[in-house]
UniProtKB/TrEMBL annotation, chain A:
SUPFAM superfamilies: MetI-like. It is found in: Cell membrane. InterPro entries: BPD_transp_1_N, MetI-like, MetI-like_sf. This is ABC transporter permease.
From TrEMBL, chain B:
Residues 74-429 form the Solute-binding protein family domain. Belongs to the bacterial solute-binding protein 5 family. Residues 1-26 form the signal peptide. This is ABC transporter substrate-binding protein.
Length: 306, 506
């Protein structure tokens, strides 16, 4: 098992390196970073000075290897835009994203799993239909629209919550709710289909026949097996919530990593973009590996197999 | 009825449970101006930043040696009480006494010498070389007198000294450098920064020790709270709710919707849009190498309709490759009316009666305007292939002479003098894709002349030549739409520097 995990980690790290190398090269395809940094008022002379100052005149593979070497020593360089170390820039933002993503994930989990179970117990019943409405609307409504509607209703009309910003904890209420609304459908539907499959299996029927109370059958026997695909999905969902909250962070003016990634791309702040890509790749690796380990713990049949 | 009851119930329960009611208060009541920017201001070392947001904050915190009154065009004393050219390449400044920095330090010649000598060094990394590359060195003559030795004659020198080159406190700047100034901005300006959460929130407070003779004096607003809110719709919501008093860069269609619900101002700015032609591109084989073809393209484009439909507000069609508000931008030039028939006959004369295909890169311009140009040109048989690019990619290709036409914009750093636009595009440098030697010579002479009349004559010749040769199709000057609290008095300026020290409540 340990050997298996180590192998998986090694492969995953190779994936990280490959992702960062490809993204590094892609950044250069989207235009000359020196011109982008010089900005819309930059003359050809300014771009040339920047090209030399930041070493963009060197071959791309050399620039990449330099970056990797520094990153391995924990040095992600200096942000071109902010003129301070990249680690400081990311450190200033990561808290907002972690708070937002993890809270939204927990809210989604707390709603999705019980709703999925309830829907599975009575397919086509009232709760199942309600769950379907949530699933369809959650998937179909664009997040920026829902966010703006939430702002208009709860921020402007009623004035219950701050419209934007995270100066107060209340500023997180709307973004967390809107963000979690997008994570609910997938987790709820996978819980529901898993439960329906498991509830029809022989061992559950046997448990019921033994006269076990319903809650023990559902939570002790059925859920443990039905939850396996949910664990893998939840890991990916958490990754998505942490890395993909650009729209929500923009709508609610939260200064997190999503916004930082997007804005750094636009202003060609290469050191920041590179560090974020590496960080997010690592995040996915950690989350998917953790999900595999949890699944292996839940289902002994998975241990020792790939 | 049921919906009303339900929403009322939800409101009641939620408010009781959360206790979050946070009534919007107008900034006027607390004499606090609440401002939003969509873009995050850069760290406030003015020499290293380009974004207007950071520069606006910086102008409230720092002062320069001089100040330009845009209403009169007059240069006024600021940190320098008086100045004079003591030779073709030397300027001397008598500095003001009794000026305090926000940290309590006294302003002296050491601050000017230290700041300017440091930022002209190539290792400092000043963002725009044009702003400081004309300075050779700065000498202290006594505690309140300095001399600037110029590296070359530069007509934009006084413009640059007027608030674009701020003075930092020398002891702090020498000890902490650029990063220190960015983390703890300290100036002599009318407002001091008392709180900074980079990218989120900046709080400026009126500086009570600000020198009374300052051209930025008499600020009436006590506190300015600036927040970065990237989503414009969120800004509109906050403006309507009374949580914001000042927003800007509202797109024209949104501005007309907001009109009547709040105070909207539209003001012209220095930035202009243009289609540049590169006769020299593609080995000179492109049809636009011919003057008649270029003239035909301008006659074929209904610029008036494009401006009216897409730019609106205070934007106007331009005939010159510069902003009429700039010194040296004569308007006495040949103009090209919208006349498709004339365009067709010019094309026929040039041997392109059957039309041709033309590639146009566009960057940092709205797609609908580019499509409108293409539609107009199609009417005279010219197929315009639009290639939208990120600014960096577009400019890169343009500079390599890979495309014959380029649709973009230029802001002249917000400065009202053609020295900050014409030479960049027609002065023979890397951005000059016309390479008209005589034109470049006039411009280089004008840029380095100290006599204002001589400069004006030379620029007029240059502007006329560019128009007559149709090297550019000038499109229009940009405008900025501001959304303001109905209680706020605010005067916009064409250099896009919001002067909140002049703002007041009605």
């Amino acid at each position: 098992m340990i050997q298996f995990i180590l192998k998986r980690l090694f492969v995953a790290l190779c994936v990280c390196v490959a992702v960062s190398a490809i993204s590094f090269a892609l950044m250069f395809l989207s235009g000359d970073p020196a011109i982008a940094i010089a900005g819309s008022g930059g003359r050809a002379e300014d771009a040339e000075a920047i090209r030399i100052a930041y070493g963009f005149d060197r071959p791309i593979p050399i620039q990449y290897l330099d970056w990797v070497w520094s990153a391995m020593r924990g040095d992600f360089g200096q942000s071109i835009y902010f003129n301070i170390p990249v680690s400081e820039v990311i450190g200033n933002r990561i808290g907002v994203t972690l708070k937002l993503g993890i809270t939204a994930f927990l809210v989604a989990l707390v709603i999705a799993v019980p709703l999925g179970i309830a829907a599975a117990l009575k397919p086509n019943g009232l709760i199942d239909r309600m769950a379907l409405v949530i699933a369809v609307t959650g998937q179909a409504i664009p997040s920026f629209w829902l966010g703006l509607m939430a702002i208009v209703v709860f921020g402007v009309w009623y004035g219950w919550v701050p419209i934007s910003g995270a100066q107060k904890w209340q500023g997180y209420i709307l973004p967390v709710l809107v963000l979690s609304y997008y994570a609910i459908p997938a987790m709820m539907r996978i819980t529901r289909s898993g439960m329906i499959g498991v509830l029809g299996s022989e061992y559950v029927r046997a448990a019921i026949a033994k006269g076990l109370p319903q809650h023990r059958v559902i939570l002790g026997h059925a859920l443990r097996n039905a939850v396996l695909p949910l664990v893998s999905l939840a890991a990916v969902q958490l990754g998505l919530l942490l890395s993909g909250s650009i729209v929500i962070e923009s709508v609610f003016a939260l200064n997190g990593m999503g916004r930082l990634a997007w804005e750094s791309l636009l202003r060609s702040d290469l050191p920041v973009v590179q560090a974020i890509i590496l960080l997010l790749s690592l995040l996915y690796v950690v989350l998917t590996t953790a999900a595999d380990i949890v699944n292996a713990l839940l289902d002994p049949r998975l241990r020792g197999t790939s | 009825m049921r919906i009303t009851r339900l929403s009322g119930l939800v409101a009641l329960v939620s408010a009781a449970a959360l206790g979050l009611a946070d009534p919007a208060f107008a900034g006027k009541a607390e004499n606090t101006l609440n401002v939003a920017f969509a873009a995050e201001p850069e760290p406030l070392d003015t020499y290293k930043i380009a974004g207007r947001e950071g520069l606006i904050l910086a102008r409230h915190i720092y002062d320069g040696l001089l100040y330009k009154d845009l209403d009169t065009g007059e240069f006024k004393p600021a940190l320098a009480e008086s100045w004079e050219f003591t030779g073709p390449l030397t300027m001397e400044f008598d500095l003001r006494q009794g000026v305090k920095f926000h940290n309590g330090a006294d302003f002296t010649a050491d601050d000017v010498v230290s700041t300017l000598n440091k930022v002209i060094g190539p290792e400092y990394g000043t963002r725009y070389s044009i702003s400081v590359d004309w300075i050779e060195s700065v000498e202290k003559l006594d505690d309140f007198k300095v001399r600037i030795n110029m590296a070359k004659p530069f007509a934009g020198a006084v413009e640059m000294l007027a608030d674009a080159l701020p003075i930092y406190p020398h002891e702090f700047f020498e000890a902490e450098g650029s990063a220190g100034i960015a983390r703890t901005p300290i100036g002599t300006g009318p407002y001091k920064l008392v709180e900074q959460e980079p990218g989120v929130r900046y709080v400026l407070e009126r500086f009570s020790d600000h020198y009374t003779e300052s051209p930025k004096g008499d600020a009436s607003i006590d506190t300015i709270v600036v927040r970065a809110i990237p989503e414009m719709n969120t800004q509109y919501a906050e403006l309507m709710a009374g949580d914001l008093d000042w927003i800007w860069r509202i797109p024209p269609d949104q501005a007309s919707r907001l009109e009547g619900r709040t105070q909207i101002l539209s003001a012209p700015i220095m930035r202009i849009s243009y289609v540049g032609f590169a006769p020299d591109s593609l080995g000179g084989e492109s049809p636009i190498a011919q003057q008649k073809v270029r003239q035909a393209l301008i006659h074929a484009t209904n610029r008036g309709a494009i401006v009216e439909a897409f730019a609106g507000g205070a934007s106007k069609v331009l005939n010159t490759p510069c902003n009429p508000a700039q010194f040296g931008c004569t308007q006495d030039v040949v103009s090209y009316d919208y006349d498709p028939e004339k365009a067709k006959s010019l094309l026929a004369e040039a041997g392109y009666g059957d039309g041709f295909e033309l590639e146009m890169i566009f960057a940092a311009m709205p797609r609908p305007t580019a499509e409108a140009i293409a539609a107009d040109l199609a009417n005279v048989g010219v197929t315009l292939n639009l290639n939208e690019q990120q600014y960096a990619a577009g400019v890169g290709q343009w500079r390599k002479k890979e495309v014959p036409s380029f649709y973009s914009n230029w802001g002249s750093y917000g400065i009202g003098d053609v020295v900050f636009i014409l030479s960049n595009f027609f002065g023979g440098g890397a951005d000059d894709l016309v390479q008209d030697q005589e034109l470049a010579d006039w411009l280089n002479k004008a840029d380095t002349a100290s006599d204002r009349a001589e400069r004006e004559d030379l620029y007029a010749k240059a502007v006329k030549r560019i128009a007559e040769q149709a090297y550019w199709m000038p499109m229009y000057n940009f405008n900025v739409n501001y959304g303001l609290s109905p209680d706020l008095s605010f005067t916009p300026h064409p250099d896009e520097f919001a002067r909140w020290w002049q703002a007041s409540w009605k």
